[in-house]
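Q: Got a minute? One more chain.
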Amino acid sequence: MSPSNRLTNVRAPDKLLIGVIHLPPLPGSPGYRGAAVDAFIERARQDADAILKAGWHGYVLENFGDAPFYKDRVPPHVVSFLTRIAAELPGAETIRGINVLRNDPQSALAVAAAAGFDFVRVNVHVGAMVTDQGIIEGRAAETIRERELWAPSVAIAADVAVKHAYPLGDGYDLNEAAKETVYRGMADALIVTGKGTGVPIERSDLTTVRRAVPDRPLLVGSGVTPESLADILQEADGVIVGTAIKKGGNVLEPVDPDRAILFARTATTSSKK
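A: Always. Here it is, folded:
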């Protein structure tokens, strides 16, 4: 049974603005530079505050700095640090998500359930994709069953043809992939992206997925700018934005409050047209 929360209940003409909090390298990752956990919490809190004060509906927290990523299960200490950070963040009344990179939905569910978050993002939920981590196979059967056991209120937002990946084998059909992700994989919402972080989507991909699955929330998860926002929101139910709201448009920088406010104003203006 799909959970009922602020993500799954979005309905037109409402449109969602979800920001991304990209954490710096956590302890144990190659880029870690010795910062205490309190420093991670403060950085994430500042980003969350900037996103929410700008009028956005929520945010996604992810261990973006932990490259190179494990292709599936992350070590227990990563889950612990993510849970500690997530539990300290504001916005309990907003839409909050977790993405444990590269593709660890079970750990994401654990963090979300413990911290009271609304959804997890799953990069490969069904099928198989060729990535820089190797071949990643979806584990919808395990993910859905574990969600039902101990995280029933947490929604699953799954990517279709996720960025930084290519379908395994010939004959990939985006229309069928979208249907199978929802109607066989039982995802609660879908995400469409471009080829990489900050890369715009193919507009035709958005149309294909929307027509294939008209009855679930559909979000665009990369490359959205204030200039493209109005057009995207004509078909999508919302956007997940990271790079374009960072200082200087640099994904590694903190959230720029002015950029976040510009997005919110653009979304409001487009919804009135």
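A: The mean pLDDT is 94.
Q: Perfect, thanks.
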